[in-house]
Amino acid sequence: MNQTLNSHRRSEGFRHNKLVQAWLVLLLAIIFGSALAAVQVNLSDVIAANKLNESLEQVPELVWGAAKAAELVENKVRIDIEPGILTVDTDGKKTVYHLFRVSMDRTLAGWVIRAGGQGYADKIELLIGLSPDAGKISGLFVLEQKETPGLGNKIIFSQWRDQYIGKDTQTPLTVTTGRSNAPDTIDAVTGATISSKSVTDIVNLTTRAVNGRLASVEYVKQ
Amino acid sequence: MNELPTPFERFVQGILPENPVYRQLLGLCPTLAVTNGLKPALTMAVAVGAVLLCANIMISLIRNLLKPHLRIVVFTLTIATFVTIVDRVLAAYMYQMSKTLGPYIPLIIVNCIIICRCEVCASRQGVVTAAADAVGQASGFALALTGIAAVRELLGTGMLAGFQVLPEAWPAWVIMVLPPGAFLTFGLLLALVNYISDHRSRKNA
Fold first, then answer.
1. Is A5 within the bounds of a domain?
2. Residues of chain A with C-beta less than 8 angstroms from the C-beta of B84
């Protein structure tokens, strides 16, 4: 009698166990997780190709600026874009940068480097245009972001990101919330200081990482 | 307990009598945010519709297994999965549109129309009713979104879905494609819908 009561209690305890009650949630999580993995496997190549196309379209503007780039595209001037990979080893941590070496008439015109980092909401991915000696920033484009609409997502507009153009890469850029005329400062987007800082941090980190290492880029054979 | 509505009733209710935007005032974030053009509004409506249909069917299929205190978790999990799939499909096949809509696609996860339909209909009724309900509500949402977007794009740019409709001389009311235009248009259309339904019910009385 006592024994059956005990086993009954045990089975009651089993049924009231939080993890057992959540069996449907756990099962669904596994099923949905695998479904999402399958979607990712099937679509990631297409999405990566879309991104590459968009990056290539942005290259002239990032190297020469909007006005000159539009002129070059209109006159159908031949621009050579060589995709390459640069592995940077800082303090034992390896970072791989995908970049483009941009040249016209066989002379180096500049570099476009893809770099990413954590933003306020999600990952931010940037394309950073650099002068041939990597001494100055020649352009900035936001490839991917999911910042707050109406605040942080203002980082995508050229009015904001154009302030990076012409900045020196030798000194790290700092973000200010008030108007400042100092040469190494970036005005934050109002109400989105973290998003602005994230972008600036990615730029600083990237320019410092690639500085003096652009000779060792491995080019992808096409 | 009253008898639950039939599939046909669910479908019809979603379009006008219980229109998610005009009558229930749900899902207003995308309604205000992505209606500055007909194309993004239509894409958003289709995306929400697809997620709503899939989530309603899925929840309806497992409705007898749901534990009352864990149901919201299951709803959210289901909705988040379908939203992520829609987000990836858009990024793969409509890349520019996916950039235009930006974070509003992942934000469908917290769109209360969908969680409301899972709670009100799908977790209580069969698959056919749940699907009919989803199609009805999605049509109602699409109707509301395209209505607002059409007014805003037409007055703000003189175009519809990118095609010039009004004569070039039309002085584009830029405010209509800016955020205030969303509130103005939505408020006026809401007043219009209320006026019409008021008028009708008085006639019937």
1. no
2. 36, 39
The candidate with the shortest Cα–Cα distance to B141, out of B5, B33, B46, B7, is B46
Residue A171 is part of which domain span? 51-219
Of the pLDDT bands very low, low, confident and very high (cuts 50, 70, 90), residue B1 is: very low
- Whether the CB of B72 is below 8 Å from some CB of chain A: the reply is no
The answer to the question of residue A32 being in a domain is: no
The answer to whether position A103 is within a domain reads yes
Task: Give the Cα separation of B11 and B138 in Å (integer).
Answer: 9
The reply to whether ipTM tops 0.95 is no
Q: Is A217 exposed, middle or buried (0-12, 13-18, 19+ CB in 10 A)?
A: buried
Provide the shortest C-alpha distance from residue B91 to chain A (in Å): 6
Which amino acid, one-letter code, is at A187?
Answer: D
Instruction: Give me the residue spans of the domains in chain B.
Output: 7-204
**Which SS3 state, helix, strand or coil, does residue A171 take?**
coil
Q: Residue A170 falls within a domain, yes or no?
A: yes
Beta-carbon count within 10 A of A79 CB: 18
Residues A101-144 pLDDT 10s: 999 888 899 999 999 999 998 899 999 999 998 889 999 999 98
CB contact under 8 A, B78 and A46: no
Domain total of chain A: 1
